[in-house]
Amino acid sequence: xxxxxxxxxxxxxxxxxxxxxxxxxxxxxxxxxxxxxxxxxxxxxxxxxxxxxxxxxxxxxxxxxxxxxxxxxxxxxxxxxxxxxxxxxxxxxxxxxxxxxxxxxxxxxxxxxxxxxxxxxxxxxxxxxxxxxxxxxxxxxxxxxxxxxxxxxxxxxxxxxxxxxxxxxxxxxxxxxxxxxxxxxxxxxxxxxxxxxxxxxxxxxxxxxxxxxxxxxxxxxxxxxxxxxxxxxxxxxxxxxxxxxxxxxxxxxxxxxxxxxxxxxxxxxxxxxxxxxxxxxxxx
Length: 284
Fold this sequence. Notes:
It is built from eleven helices and twelve strands. The protein is an alpha/beta fold. The active site is at residue 126.
């Protein structure tokens, strides 16, 4: 009975892939690679999370020699699993998605994207432009201009934006691969402070919506998925937890539970109590 239930759950996830651009993913959890205590810890968290896409800043993968003479680009990339094994399935690749974190305008972001494509041989790019280093809020104007140019250059662009439904539609019109609206300020772990606007974006776009930034707990991730988000990107909440490996597993389960709840259809809410077992003819 238990084996049958596990098999049924696996089939549900297998037949519910996430499509971004021309690629298909069976995990809806994307992971960042920063802030971990060490690279071995990051590697294990990636492995057990089940993720099939990880993101990293270009400045962390540019080739340069460390003090001990080891190439830091190779050091980081060697700790990122290149594939994951699903139960009863062949290995699937783990995709790299470099990001343009640190870019202050469209020109810098485009250059960073081109360098990242050269280094990692990928057309995926997480577009981040935040001129203010204090709050790291995305610049909507520069992001739109950069996205337009990068799409023309053949990139599969995933722009990090405010939870702005109007900007989301404009970016959809220029051909980005997905939208990545923030749930709260990046790195804050405050949860879905932008929930109302996220719901408008999710309901109004045909693109995948990956909630990025601010998610602080597995329950936040589950809620995002219950709202209809197509995925979440988690970094700080896992990497800065007391046990990042266990937290990665917790987020994996939360994302799957939230997605399954969305597909099942949540029950209606109301102000009046209603018994789950009607008392009709109870005494008759």
